[in-house]
Amino acid sequence: MIILMKKNASKEQIQSVVDVLGDHGLGANVSPGTEATVIGILGDKSKLGCIDLALMDGVDDCVPIMHSYKLASRDMCPQGRTVEIGGEVFGGEKLIVIGGPCAVENEESILQSAAGVKAAGATFLRGGAYKPRTSPYSFQGMEVEGLKLLRKAGDTYGLKVVSEIVAHEQLEDAAKYVDMIQIGARNMQNFQLLKEVGRSKIPVILKRGIANTIEEWLDAAEYILSEGNLNVVLCERGIRTFETATRNTLDVSAVPVVKERSCLPVIIDPSHAAGKMKYVKPLSLAGIAAGADGLIVEVHYNAKIAISDAAQQLSPQDFAELLAKVRELAPVVGRSL
Amino acid sequence: MIILMKKNASKEQIQSVVDVLGDHGLGANVSPGTEATVIGILGDKSKLGCIDLALMDGVDDCVPIMHSYKLASRDMCPQGRTVEIGGEVFGGEKLIVIGGPCAVENEESILQSAAGVKAAGATFLRGGAYKPRTSPYSFQGMEVEGLKLLRKAGDTYGLKVVSEIVAHEQLEDAAKYVDMIQIGARNMQNFQLLKEVGRSKIPVILKRGIANTIEEWLDAAEYILSEGNLNVVLCERGIRTFETATRNTLDVSAVPVVKERSCLPVIIDPSHAAGKMKYVKPLSLAGIAAGADGLIVEVHYNAKIAISDAAQQLSPQDFAELLAKVRELAPVVGRSL
Amino acid sequence: MIILMKKNASKEQIQSVVDVLGDHGLGANVSPGTEATVIGILGDKSKLGCIDLALMDGVDDCVPIMHSYKLASRDMCPQGRTVEIGGEVFGGEKLIVIGGPCAVENEESILQSAAGVKAAGATFLRGGAYKPRTSPYSFQGMEVEGLKLLRKAGDTYGLKVVSEIVAHEQLEDAAKYVDMIQIGARNMQNFQLLKEVGRSKIPVILKRGIANTIEEWLDAAEYILSEGNLNVVLCERGIRTFETATRNTLDVSAVPVVKERSCLPVIIDPSHAAGKMKYVKPLSLAGIAAGADGLIVEVHYNAKIAISDAAQQLSPQDFAELLAKVRELAPVVGRSL
Amino acid sequence: MIILMKKNASKEQIQSVVDVLGDHGLGANVSPGTEATVIGILGDKSKLGCIDLALMDGVDDCVPIMHSYKLASRDMCPQGRTVEIGGEVFGGEKLIVIGGPCAVENEESILQSAAGVKAAGATFLRGGAYKPRTSPYSFQGMEVEGLKLLRKAGDTYGLKVVSEIVAHEQLEDAAKYVDMIQIGARNMQNFQLLKEVGRSKIPVILKRGIANTIEEWLDAAEYILSEGNLNVVLCERGIRTFETATRNTLDVSAVPVVKERSCLPVIIDPSHAAGKMKYVKPLSLAGIAAGADGLIVEVHYNAKIAISDAAQQLSPQDFAELLAKVRELAPVVGRSL
User: How far apart are alpha carbons D261 and A73 in whole angstroms?
Assistant: First the structure.
C-alpha cells in the first residue's frame, strides 16, 4: 500500500503517518514529489487489521499495490493449475462441458436430460437440488433426494455430476452423491461456507457474484485454497449492470483477466448470463474464443414442450449443435473438445 | 404476471400459451390489441415454479405485475409496523440512533466507545464480533468473547446492543448476549441464515446487498417474516456503482421507496456508504430528511489517535455534534430524537 | 501520476520508464520498496499527451494523484465561489429554487405555471424550449418561440429564467431571452458546446451525466471555466445504476464530495432523479440537508388534470408545500430561503 | 404501452385513464384481471408527447411494449442491411477490419502505421483528427490537417479511411477527406450531430455510449436513419460497470441482441473496451465468435518504442497475428476475412 499525502500536507502530518506505521511495526519510505509526497509502507501489512490511514490529517488517499490473495495468484503457479476429476481435467488442453437442467425435478426428467447431455458429447451433468430462490414462496429444490437422482442419472450415462450447495450443512450429503459442488453467485462471499468447503477438499466451482470485482472473486477463492482445497474452478456467469436486454452482462473480459492474474481454471455459464436461450450459443462461442476452459450450460430434455424451467435451457438437440460448433472452434484457440 | 405476445404472433402461438397455463391450472385473459396481444394470468402463479413463459414461440416478454413478497408489503400493514426493543421503538415518532466501533477490540476500547455513544444521546451500541472479511488473511473478529464484552459495555452504560452474525451457528450465542442482530450486505441473500433468523424471533437489522434491488431486499425480508419473526428493521448502506469518490453510493431514494412499498422501519448506515468520516454527517442528515427511522453510525473513542478501524469512524465528540444536528432536524420531518 | 512497477521488474525496465519520461522532458523520482518500486513523475505531465505508460514492460499500473482540473478545484478558491444573477446568488447563504414545467407548451400554460412558481416563493422559472429526446419521433420543443414565451412569463412574474440548449447554434438566441442556460446530462461531454458556452460568459447550470464520475464532471466544468466563463453552477440529477424503482439514483453524496473538491455551487434536481412526483419532496429535503445550494424542480400548473408532462411534475400547491418544508429545514444547515 | 392499475383502483380511476386517453385521441382496451386491471392503449401513441400516465390516481405502472425505433428495427429489414463503401461491405459474409492509431500525429507516423495495417490484411485505416478529451488541457487533435494526412496514408496504401467527428461543423471537411465518419460514445446522444449526419448520407460508425442501453443506441441510430442516411454501422465498445480490471466492460451479448432486434451491421472495438493491449486479442476473437461483422482496432507502428498513444494500441506485428487468428476463426461462424 502506498499513501498519497495532500499537496499542502505539513511535515508534522507526514511524520504522524510515519509514526503510526512505526507503532504497528511497519517501516515507511517517504518520497517527496513536486505534486505530493508519497509514502510507501514496508513490512507485513496484515498487521494493519482494518486500519484505514486515509483518516489521518494530511492524507489524500491510500492505494493498494498488492493483491491480498496469494495462493490464487498466478505468481504461485506460473504454469497454471488444473483440477482433475476422474480423468476429466479442468484447465488442460481439452475443454470441459457441463450440461443439465436448472433443477432435478423427478427421476424420468433427470434421466432423459442426462441422456441428451451424454449424446451431445458433454462429460458432466448438472442439476440443482438445493435452489437459492429470491422469494421464499418459490420451489426450493428436492434436496438430498435430488442429489440421489442426479447420482443415478450420472451413473446410468457415465457422466460426472455437479450440484450447488447453499449451506455448509449440505456438504456432507453432497460429498456422498456428487463429484463436484458448486457455490453460486449469491454465496460467493458466504465466508463460512467457503471455509468449510476449503476444509473438505471436494472439487468446487466458484461462481462470481453479480456485483463482485475480479479481485474480490479471487479473494473468495483464496478462502477455499487457504484451507487446503486446491480444487477450485472459477465460473463467470454475468454481472449486474444497467442493461436489461440480458438478465446479466457476461463479462467475457474476465476470462483473460483471470488467466493473467490467477492460475485457476475458469469456465463460462452463458445460460445465467443471458437469461434467454437464444443467446446461449453466441455467448458460449465468445467465452471459448476468449480462452475459457469450459462451459456450464442449462439443458432440459423437454424444455420446449414442458416449459418447466424453460427460458434459458437448451434442448438436447440445440445443445448438441452448440457442442458441434465448440468442437469446430476449439482448435482455433489451441484446444479440443 | 402478464405476457406480451409478439406483434406477429399467430393464433396458434397464442393458443399454445393459453394451453400451457391451463396445464398448470391457471386461467388466461387474452386481450388482442392494435400493437400486440396481451395475456393476463389468472390464478395462483406460484404453481409456475421456475417456469419462464418467455421461451415460448411468439412470446415477446413477461412482465411481473405483483410483488412476490406479502408480509413485507405495505398492503399488509397500511399503518406501518414498529419493532420494539425494551422500550425503544424503530418506526415510531422517535428516531433511533445506534453508534459504536467497527469491531470489538478489547474491553477498555469498547467501554470507552460505549461511554461516548451514551454521552452523545444514542440508545444502542454496535460492535462487530464476527467480521465478514474479503480476504481470509484479515482480522476475523473476537467472536463470542466480543459479544460478551459488548454486552458488558451495554449494561455498564444502559445501552441496548446489536452485533452482526455471519452464520446461523452464531445465532444461539448471539441471542444470549445481544438485543438485536444484524445481517450484513453480503448475507442479504444467504437464505439459510434468513430462515434460521426467521425462526428465532430475535429482532434483526437486515442490510441491503450492495447490488440488490429494493424488490430483492424486500423478498429477503420476507424470508424472515414468513418464518414468524416480524421484528425486521431494514438498513440502507449504499449500493455499488461506477462512482469511486465514495466507497458505495448511498441510495437515499430507497428510503421513500421502502416507505411506500413496505411497512418495515428503515434506517441509514452513512459510515459504510461513504467509507469516509468526512461525509458521515451530510449523509446522516440527508437520510433523516428523506424519512429514515434512524441511523447506525461507526464511532470509536479514539479513532484519531489509535487509527485502528479509522477512516469511517467518528470520534465521540463528532458523533455528539452529529446528533445535535439530527435533533435540530428531526422536527422538520415530524420526528424527535 | 505515479507509476507502480511490477514486483519482479528488472533494473532495465525501471530505467526504460525513466528514459521515456526524460524523452518527454519529465523527471522521475524512483522509490524502491519492499513490495514494488514506485516512480513519481516530476514536471508538466500535460506533455505526455495520450501516452499511457502502463504499456511498458515491467509496469504494473499508473495511478493519477492529481486532478486534471484546476479552476474547478477547491484549491483555487478556498472560500468558495458564487454565481450572481440579478441579485440572486448561487452558493451564498440563501438557497436558490428554480421551478417550472418540463417544456414550454404554449403561452397560457407557461404563464400559469410561472404564477404558481412565483407564489410558492421561488425566484427562477425553468421551461424547456429545445428538448433532447431519446427518439426522433418525440416532441422536440418549441425552440425560439418557447424561449420568448419563457421570457414573457418570467417578466410578467418577476422571475429569472433558465432553459436548456443542446447545440451551440442555440446560444445566441438563448442569450437574448434567458438569464441562465442549462447544459443537460446528455451534453455534459459535448466539448464543443462546453467551449462555446465558456466563451459566452452566460451563467450556466451544468448537469452531471448519468454515467459520469464526479471527476469527469469537474473536468467538464473546467472546459467552461478555462474559456473564461466562471459562472458555472453544477447540478446533480441522478446516475444510472441497476436499481429501477427510481428513474435514476440520486447520488446525494456528490454534494459533499463536490463541496470538498471544488468551489462551484451545486444544486439538486430531484425530479429527473426520481422520475416520480411522489419522491420529489424527500429527495429535495435530502439534497438540502446534505448541503446543496438549491433545487431545480419540475412544476406544472395543471399536472393532475392535463397530465401533459406529468409523472415527475409537481402541482403549484405541492411545490409551495415543498418550499415551506425547505424553509423550515434551511436554518438547520445554516441557510435560509 | 399498457397501463397497470393498482390492485385496489376504483372504477372511477379506471374511467379517468380511459377519458384522458380519449382526450388525446387514443382508444383504450380495458382488461380486468384477478390481480389488477390492465389497460392497453390503442392508436398513435406519439400523440402522448412527454405525458406520463403513471401520475394518475390508481395507476401502478406503465409498460412500453413497442420499440420507439422503426427503421433500425429488424422488422423493417428481415434480411439484414449492408453498408457498402467502395466494394467493402459491412454486414456481408466477409468480415471488415479497421486498424490504425488513436490519433494522427504526423505524416511519417500515419504512413508507417498505414503500411502495417495494410500488410496485416485490413482494408480500413482509422486515425483521430478531432479528439474528444475529458480534460481541456489534453491534446485535442490535428483537426483538418490530420484528415488530410489520413487521406494521404489511405491513398498511398489502398485503404479506405475513417475518422471521428465531434461537432457537425466538422462534417463538411470530413466528407472531403474520409470515406466514413465515426460518432463516438460521448456523442451517441448528441442529437443535433446525429441529425446533421443523417442529412449528409456519409457512411457512419455509431458507437454505443458507455451508459446507454441497447434500446437507446438503436433510438440514436434512428435519428440518422430517419433523416435518410441508411449507411449506419453500430459499434460496441464497452459499457461502464463497477469492474475496474478493464477500462470498460465489453458487452459481448450486445452483438446477438442487436442482430435480433435490428438489421444494422455491428462491429466490436476491443481496444477501448479493454483499455489494455494484452486483452485486445481475446476480446476480438470473442466478438467475432459472437457474430460481429468486424473489428476496429487501435494499431500504432511504433507503440512499444515511442509509447505515444500506447497502452491499448497493437504493434503491426501483433495486429497481423490477431488477423491471422480471426481468419482461422471466421469459417466457424460462417464468415471469411
Answer: 41
Q: Is the ipTM of this complex over 0.90?
A: no
C-alpha cell at A137: 414462496
* φ, ψ at C265 (rounded to 5°): -65, 150
Cα radius of gyration rounded to whole Å, chain A: 23
Which residues in chain C have their CB less than 8 angstroms from residue A43's CB? 34
What residues of chain C lie within 8 A of the CB of B249, using their CB? 239, 241, 249, 251, 253
pLDDT-based confidence at residue A27 (cuts at 50, 70, 90): confident
Beta carbons of D177 and D148 less than 8 angstroms apart: yes
For residue D193, the 8-state DSSP code is H
Give the pLDDT band (50/70/90) at residue B50.
Answer: very low
Is the C-alpha dihedral spanning C266, C271, C275, C276 positive or negative? positive
- Structural domains in chain B? 2-63 (3.30.70.1140), 74-333 (3.20.20.70)
From the number of C-beta atoms within 10 Å of its C-beta (0-12, 13-18, 19+), residue D176 rates as: exposed
Nearest-CB residue to B34 (from D42, D63, D242): D42
Ranking C24-28, D87-91, D122-126 by mean pLDDT, the lowest is C24-28
User: How many angstroms separate the CA atoms of D126 and D123, rounded?
Assistant: 10
Q: Give the closest residue to A127 by CA, choosing from A136, A137, A116.
A: A116
pLDDT, tens digit, 9 for 90 and up, residues B110-151: 999 999 999 999 999 999 999 887 777 766 789 999 999 999
Contact (CB, 8 A) for B17 and B28:
yes
Q: Is-contact D205 D181, C-beta < 8 A?
A: yes
Contacts of C280 in chain B (CB under 8 A): none
Q: Where are the alpha helices (DSSP H) in B33-106?
A: none
Give me C262's grid cell: 471544488
Spatial distance between the Cα atoms of C65 and A7, rounded to a whole number of angstroms: 10
pLDDT tens digit string along C32-58?
665 677 777 766 555 554 345 666 777
- Which subunits sit against D, judged by 3+ Cβ pairs under 8 A? A, B, C
Grid cell listed for B128: 462487530
CA end-to-end span of chain C, whole Å?
43
Find the closest chain A residue to B279 by CA distance.
Answer: A55
B234, B268 contact by CB (below 8 A): no
Chain-chain contact of A38 with C31 (C-beta, under 8 angstroms): yes
- For the record, the C-alpha cell of C287 comes out as 439534497
